[in-house]
Design a protein that fits this description.
Low-confidence stretches: none
Shape: elongated
Order of helices and strands: EEEEEEHEEHHHEHHEEH
Mean pLDDT: 88
Helix content: 40-55%
Distance between the termini: 48 Å
Strand content: 25-35%
Largest sheet: 4 strands, antiparallel
Radius of gyration: 18 Å
Structural class: alpha+beta
Length: 200
């Protein structure tokens, strides 16, 4: 089933009975949780072409996070019952799905390592390097999500995010133009990971 969602529209809420998983055909979706203090923590950003909530189909139960559109998005939803039938009929599909989930888990483990051990500046640099690696128009990076969402994703405050970007710009490492970044010196950007005190 295909569905259009508007910016900010909720797709499902944490704790709701889970019955479908989704493919983001276009647009972006944020997966997030709300802390006891009422603060939003972004768990993952799903871009066009990405699946989400598919792991819940193997666990059953309830959605472990909230999902909401970041911008105008088109989603295709798949019922768990239909997925289970398809997996039963096609073991190859099951292996491909497991491979995709394993890659996401590996990426999240690396991200947890970065978040746990790095400074705010290092976390930003890790994030920018990940975007740069996947950018089709490198060295230009498109910050598709709002800055406050990205800040939550890497565990810093929005004002810290803006301040750190400004320092990278002042150092001549990159330029910032609205939602686009241009990285002028990838080597120096990587160097910040080794010696964050040189800049931050």
């Amino acid at each position: 089933e295909s569905r259009q969602v508007a910016p900010g529209e909720t797709i499902f809420r944490q704790g709701e009975n889970a019955s479908h998983f989704y493919l983001a055909v276009s647009g972006q979706v944020r997966l997030y949780r709300i802390s006891p203090a009422g603060e939003e923590k972004v768990i993952d950003l799903i871009r066009a072409g990405g699946l989400f909530a598919e792991a819940v189909s193997f666990m059953g139960g309830r959605y472990p996070v909230n999902a909401a559109a970041i911008d105008h998005a088109r989603l295709v939803s798949f019922a768990f019952d239909a997925l289970n039938r398809a997996l039963h009929d096609s073991p190859g599909l099951a292996f491909r799905m497991l491979g995709g989930m394993a890659m996401r888990i590996h990426g999240l483990v690396n991200e947890i390592d970065h978040l746990a051990s790095g400074s705010a500046g290092q976390r930003l640099v890790y994030y920018l390097l990940d975007l740069l690696r996947d950018a089709p128009d490198a060295p230009r990076i498109h910050l598709r999500a709002p800055k406050n969402v990205i800040a939550s994703r890497i565990g810093i405050k929005p004002e810290t995010f803006s301040r750190l970007l400004a320092r990278l710009k002042e150092a001549g490492i990159l330029d910032v133009h609205e939602e686009w970044l241009t990285v002028h010196d990838e080597a120096r950007l990587r160097g910040v990971l080794e010696n964050p005190s040189c800049l931050f």
